[in-house]
Amino acid sequence: MSKEGSRFDALLAERGEIARFAITLTIVAGVVGYVQHNGGVTWAPLSLSLRVAGVSTLLTLVVGVALAVLLQWRKMPARDLFDALTSVPLVLPPTVLGYYLIVSLGPESTVGRAWEAVFGSPLIFTFKAAVIAASIGSLPLVVRSVRVGLESVEPNLISAARTLGAGPLRVFVTVVLPLAAPGLVAGAMLGFARSLGDYGATMMFAGARIDGTPTGSIAVMDFLYGNHEAEAREMGLVMTVVGVGMLYLANRLTRRTLPNRG
Amino acid sequence: MAELVARIALARSTEFALDVELQCPHGITCIMGPSGSGKSTILAVLAGLQTPDRGRVALGTHVWLDRAQGIDVPVHRRRLSYVFQGLALFPHMNAMHNVEYGMHDMPRADRAGKALALLERVGVAHLAKRRPRTFSGGEAQRVALARALARSPELVLLDEPFSALDRELRAQLVSLVRELSKELTVPIVHVTHSIAEARQLADQIVRLDKGRVVARGKPDEVLAGVTSLEE
Lengths: 262, 231
Known about the structure:
The complex is a heterodimer. Chain A is mainly alpha-helical. Chain A has a single domain (15-260), classed as Orthogonal Bundle (MetI-like fold). Chain A is built from twelve helices and no strands. In chain A, helix 3 (43-72) packs across helix 7 (127-151). Chain B folds into two domains: 1-79 and 157-220, Rossmann fold; 88-152, no CATH class. A six-stranded mixed sheet of chain B has the order 7-8-9-3-10-11, sandwiched between helices. In chain B, strands 2-1-4-5-6 form a five-stranded antiparallel sheet, with helices on one face. In chain B, strand 8 (155-159), helix 5 and strand 9 form a beta-alpha-beta unit. Chain B is globular, with a radius of gyration of 17 Å. The interface between A and B is medium-sized, with 24 and 34 residues.
């Protein structure tokens, strides 16, 4: 049915995706290089945003996989309500999310007081607060993508693994996760892009500055109101290109997970 | 040699309920019947993938399921092998890793050697490093059989594994399964639509219709004068 087995078969089959990924990265790098060549942006806000988005992506991926698995469980009580609650950050105004974060994790809250007692300083207006604010906004996107990935795994493969002696954890780690990987990666990319651009919740819960530096999206606002329009445009351009690149790749990966269902 | 004894009662979404009793000694028992008669459901219950309303499944002295006693051994603790209709080879693993998957309780150092020996036994050792999407239909069937043998099963379940193959390949695999059944000395429950396949393979035939056993016995007795299962 095919040529004599080459260990590069899988890699060759993915060459289209690899090429698209490389082109996307080249475009992003090109725009960043162009902006830098023409006077450049102040990198500190962008660097802060990238760090916040990076940590937030790791956090949302772990929480998102756990929530997606829970939502896959058909016998889960109040599953539809829980599903709606997981998605609610998509439809709430960012300021409302920020308000809820202050109420639930701020210095007057039980969690906030416990945090301060354990770590010696409040959670609010810190890098960690920015990560949490960005994570809350991106979590629904991650959960949705991971669910698409999990649902694309053919149920017979799970049954086969079980009949071969694998317990639930081994089935999940060795069969479900690898086959759902495109959905997980797509979720991570969407989550990263969403975290990178978070404004409202971050502003309310982490403040306009973290150790004296604004995040990229807050910096755009600062530049604009400080009559630095060129800097605002350049920062906006870089963030737009990174965001579009991530969304493009996430869409490709999400579409690829669907045909797995056999 | 442990005999499989099962009694299964299950209300289904179809117009009739499943209510069968099986006794499968060492050798090949072919379960036959029209589409929707409950053949695959029986295999799913034997494997533990589906729980009946009432029933008992025992292999020799090991009770895997007894609804009355509240016993339901999880799928992964039932020492069986199941070849699914679509084969369900793991697409992200090569043939060798597919076969090794069922050897989790063997010492790691022994797994590769045994997996390769099994692939050789079914005539596809050359596929060891290749992934399922590069296999032909017959090659995939052979790898699935090798994987099924890897667990040293006490019961083998085959759910129409040859239905998508042409006559020549089917004949080759039927004779391979026949040979394997002599080596394994465990009950093999084989679901099939094909009267010819059942005649060649079966030591015992159980014929189902509308969820009930309508005939059981040796192939010559059960299939005398039968030309079609869809009546």
